[in-house]
Automatic annotation (TrEMBL):
Superkingdom field: Bacteria
Described purpose of this protein according to its UniProt entry: Part of the binding-protein-dependent transport system for glutamine; probably responsible for the translocation of the substrate across the membrane.
Organism: Rhizobium halophytocola
Subcellular localization, as worded in the UniProt entry: Cell inner membrane; Cell membrane
This protein's record includes keyword Methyltransferase: no
Gene3D superfamilies in the record: MetI-like
NCBIfam families: HEQRo_perm_3TM
Protein family membership: Belongs to the binding-protein-dependent transport system permease family. HisMQ subfamily.
Name assigned to this protein: His/Glu/Gln/Arg/opine family amino acid ABC transporter permease subunit
Membrane protein topology class: Multi-pass membrane protein
């Protein structure tokens, strides 16, 4: 039994292997992971908000394609979408970013997240009270003005905690871009750890990567939960005062 514990420790928590890969994880992998997650989130937020406005539109010709867009991106496996965008577009001659694999990776994750963020935004936009919308229209506002000045400010504010929670999923989703074969300077946490684990025939580098992911995601998860509780209390307080 003691020998088994030692073997487990050497396989998953070898301090030599962890110490060997950790500097590269911190110097290269961590910044690339965070940057990739931020760029992908910006793409997802912009596209998601536009699609959500289409989903909230009463016009069928606008709402239907937005619904198809969301259903496809949410229904396809993430790994397949990353392959289609990251490898399929260049093979099809649509070299949008030349040989910049990093940009294709950010676009692929951003498109995936736009489908989920669109539903988050849609829920926020549709949560705005109907009375406020009717009041703005009675004041002479057009549909676009109502969306810009009444619905968007309130709806976006209400979905900030869920969007922050979605960013946590984006960070974890960056692990899939290793499939696209990033260059040594572009590699994120998982690809660096995977290469080290294969070369050393040891899983300790992957455990080191797991530790970094936990250090990134666990504090953010608690912050999002606290933020949601605080907004819930503020919402109930506002309702009771009204």
């Amino acid at each position: 039994m003691f020998e088994g514990l030692i073997r487990i420790q050497q396989t998953f928590f070898d301090p030599v292997e962890i110490g060997r890969v950790m500097p590269q994880l911190l110097r290269v992998g961590l910044p690339n992971t965070i940057l990739l997650a931020i760029v992908a989130s910006i793409i997802g937020i912009i596209l998601g908000l536009l699609v959500a406005m289409g989903l909230s539109s009463p016009r069928r010709w606008l709402k239907a394609p937005c619904r198809v867009y969301v259903d496809i991106l949410r229904g396809l496996p993430h790994i397949l979408t990353i392959y289609i965008i990251g490898q399929g577009l260049p093979l099809a001659g649509l070299a949008l970013f030349g040989n910049n694999t990093y940009a294709y990776a950010a676009l692929a994750i951003g498109l995936i997240e736009s489908g989920y963020m669109a539903e988050i935004f849609r829920a926020g936009l549709q949560s705005v009270e109907r009375g406020q919308i009717e009041a703005s229209r009675s004041l002479g506002m057009t549909s676009m003005q109502t969306m810009r000045y009444v619905i968007l400010p309130q709806g976006v504010r209400r979905v900030l905690p869920p969007l922050t929670g979605q960013f946590i999923l984006v960070i974890k989703g960056t692990a899939l871009v290793f499939l696209l074969g990033l260059t040594s300077s572009q590699r994120e946490i998982f690809s660096i750890a995977q290469d080290a684990a294969i070369n050393d025939a040891n899983l300790s580098p992957l455990m080191a990567a797991g530790i970094l992911y936990l250090l990134l995601t666990v504090p953010m998860t608690h912050l999002v939960n606290a933020w949601e509780r605080r907004m819930g209390v503020s919402s109930r307080r506002t309702t009771s005062e009204d």
